[in-house]
């Protein structure tokens, strides 16, 4: 027997804080909320049981809108083609492979800190998220292609920023009018995509003509193309997917972690003490992460409050039922880690920043989908392992060498989308606390 239909709420487009309003609706209406978006009626399912039922159900696929940016890349495809792509790319993200990227992560982060030092950043206002995006984009380009010239990194940053600012994660469709009916945004988006495609083509050509040993992950894609497994367009789609997904989420996760640390001096001081004790005078390596236990708890708690993948929209291929609610063929369903991560049945004082929630004894019996910062199920983020090496290594280096200050008056209302951006940005000032190692 079908459950009674939840109340239908008007569009969230006019709401200044759509995510906060979603929380309010869940509090008033329960774990199933439906509302109108620019793309149609959306059902939000908030309980971890509902999330699990959706992400593990092959009948709920990504929307066609994702393909506007990612083509048939891993994040936009489904079915047999997605299975083929996943099998092809999975070996590049095995633990042994991603541990090998630790040196790239550390050296790129030290390069950013040296640039700050050279440019006299001490006391100057920096936009942390912009700096983090440039850093993580440099890292993912190096992981994909090997060494990449800085001018290509800067050009790619500019293009990626336009794409992410005006398209977000392509999940803005659940909050706002779709991109496809705003010609001005669409024109800027297409222009930025042309720039990104041009840079990707140049870097791919350089990788082809260079020594095989200097290539990164793109080597396996080029081999698959040469063997007739992939077309040139499919290679492009996978590269663009990894660039978009592989830098924005890490940059946002780092920015929110630093914002929360700046507002919680006790957590910050305890974390700096751990970093200083574990690293002493050394530069961190991947093997140090197992000893930086509080740092991992801080990152997890930061991602609970501001998850790097905060919403996922799925479309029913055929009629289905979730939690007793009928979803018609073509119907949209939404899972939102931002709201589920605040579910009072699973999180006491859910708005409080408390890294000790993630002590092993407090995490052991938690529902698998009470905390899902990288989604889960069939489409769990393939780069999760890389992110959880990249983010703590970068954060450890930042805490070791600089002290960051963020103005206390910033209102932390995140903009909706997969990667939660702060409306006012992340302005910081820095002061160096320990000298950088010699080049």
What would you say this structure looks like, in words?
By secondary structure, the protein is an alpha+beta fold. It has a domain at 69-309 and 373-432: Cytochrome P450 (Cytochrome p450). Helix content is 49%, strand content 11%. The protein contains 16 helices and 13 strands. A six-stranded mixed sheet has the order 1-2-3-9-6-4, sandwiched between helices. Strands 5-13-10 form a three-stranded antiparallel sheet. A two-stranded antiparallel sheet has the order 7-8.
Cα-atom radius of gyration: 21 Å
Question: Treating each run of at least 4 consecutive H or I residues as one helix, how many helices?
Answer: 16
Structural class: alpha+beta
What is the fold named in CATH at topology level of the domain at 69-309 and 373-432? Cytochrome p450
CATH class of the domain at 69-309 and 373-432: Mainly Alpha
CATH superfamily of the domain at 69-309 and 373-432: Cytochrome P450
Strand order of the largest sheet: 1-2-3-9-6-4
Keyword list:
6-stranded mixed β-sheet, 11% strand, 3-stranded antiparallel β-sheet, alpha+beta, 13 strands, single chain, Cytochrome p450, 439 residues
Topology:
Elements: E1 8-9, H1 18-29, E2 32-37, E3 40-45, H2 48-55, E4 60-61, H3 67-70, H4 79-89, H5 95-99, H6 102-118, E5 125-127, H7 128-145, H8 150-167, H9 183-209, H10 218-226, H11 232-263, H12 265-279, H13 293-305, E6 311-316, E7 320-322, E8 325-327, E9 332-336, H14 337-340, H15 360-363, H16 384-401, E10 402-405, E11 414-415, E12 421-422, E13 427-432
Parallel strand pairs: 1-2, 3-9
Antiparallel strand pairs: 2-3, 4-6, 5-13, 6-9, 7-8, 10-13, 11-12
Helix pairs in contact: 6-7, 6-16, 7-8, 7-11, 8-9, 10-11, 11-13, 11-16
